[in-house]
Design brief:
Blueprint: E1 13-17, H1 22-28, E2 30-31, E3 37-44, H2 49-53, E4 60-65, H3 66-71, E5 75-78, E6 86-90, H4 94-101, E7 105-106
Antiparallel strand pairs: 1-3, 1-4, 2-3, 3-6, 4-7, 5-6
């Protein structure tokens, strides 16, 4: 697990719950208490997607890597949140974020009933 302030490795997985349409991203964009503006995501290196997704209430998730976010001109920075994997995706437009996080997949972290 990364410590707040340290650079997240390029091969770390980034996931975000929901359909991840540009309008969803726009609604979800905010400024974290530490001053970083962007979208809340879960992000970690060497952590299964099932583990990353278990605190996401949505039925579907979008996924990409930190490398793909950086290639598009953005970044993913560690920020505090509800899980130890919380981070903020920053520096991209809602359209760019949506393109990275779609198509979505069923959330593998949700318990099957």
């Amino acid at each position: 697990m990364e410590i707040i302030g340290l650079r997240i490795p390029d091969d770390a997985l980034v996931i975000r719950g929901g359909k991840n349409h540009a309008s969803d991203i726009q609604r979800g964009t905010g400024t974290h208490p530490n001053g970083v503006t962007g979208e809340s995501v879960e992000c970690a290196e060497d952590v299964p997607v099932t583990e990353l997704a278990k605190n996401i209430p949505h039925g579907q998730i979008g996924r990409t890597t930190v490398a793909e976010v950086r290639k598009a001109g953005g970044d993913v920075v560690r920020t505090s949140g509800r899980s130890p994997y919380h981070a903020t995706l920053t520096g991209l437009t809602p359209e760019q974020v949506s393109k990275l996080l779609t198509p979505t997949i069923p959330n593998p972290g949700r318990e099957k009933i």
